[in-house]
Amino acid sequence: MRVLVVEDNRNLVANLFEYFEARGYTLDAAPDGATGLHLAVTQHYDAIVLDWMLPRLDGHGVLRGLRDAGNEVPVLMLTARDELPDKIAGFRAGADDYLTKPFALPELEVRLEALIARASGRGRSRVLQVADLRYDLTTLEVSRAGRALHLYPACRKLLEVLMQSSPAAVTRERLEHALWGDSPPDGDMLRSHIYELRRSVDGPYPNKLIQTLPRVGYRLADLAAPGAVEAAHGG
Questions:
Q1: In the chain, how many domains are there?
Q2: Checking phi first, is residue 92 left (phi over 0); if not, alpha (psi -120 to 50) or beta?
Q3: Which H/E stretch holds residue 142?
Q4: CATH no. for residue 115?
Q5: Is residue 24 part of a domain?
């Protein structure tokens, strides 16, 4: 998931990058409102974290510019202004959520997850299931054999793509695009995320669902089911 942080506090931005990139997010940053608005209307983001007091153009101006341009990207205001009139002004300008400083990073994470889920249409009840692996796209809960699995956002995104395509193969290029768009990071970060996903989804279970397809990509399928091998190969 790709998030734009519009914030002029460099230390705070550094903390956000350290926390969220470790969890599979891709972050861009803008140090002022004018730069933030330009990035927001020229690039695709799943959500925006927006400070209220910014140089060049304040958060209210950024929001107005976004909404006037027809851009409905979810925006979470991040500010020290906690008076009710300030909150009302922010929501009326087009913000989707409001978090006051100081704040806990895990709270910001779950708020962003909820905003992104609603914006992507996951508010409608949808459940993916392969064998005993279940992913509720409404609540973002993943379980296997009735046991809850705790996955980072990047792993959940990979799991969603793999389960939606199951039992077909998914190319590396498609998985990388799902995580990072047209700007994948240097190095084989996809392999690292697949490793973490496989450790959570398959680690303690005898029936391994995630398969590596050399020179192609990956597949999630229940190969223990009758006829699964033939079906997975199109037979």
A1: 2
A2: alpha
A3: strand 141-144
A4: 3.40.50.2300
A5: yes
Same domain, 13 and 109: yes
Q: Does a structural domain hold residue 138?
A: no
pTM comes to 0.58
Q: Which of 149, 138, 79 is nearest to 108 (CA)?
A: 79
Length of the chain as a residue count: 235
DSSP of 74-95, one letter per residue? -EEEEES--SHHHHHHHHHHT-
101 with 156, same domain: the answer is no
Q: Is the dihedral of CA 203, 208, 214, 220 positive or negative?
A: negative
- Taking all residues of the chain, what is their mean pLDDT, rounded to a whole number? 87
- Residue 227: which domain range? 152-232
Q: What digits encode the pLDDT tens for the residues 4-37?
A: 999 999 999 999 999 998 888 889 999 999 999 9
Query: CA-CA distance, 155 to 1, in Å (whole number)?
Result: 11
The sheet that has 170-171: what strands, in order across it?
170-171, 217-220, 210-213
Last residue of a domain, one of 119, 142, 160: 119
Q: What percent of the chain has pLDDT over 90?
A: 51
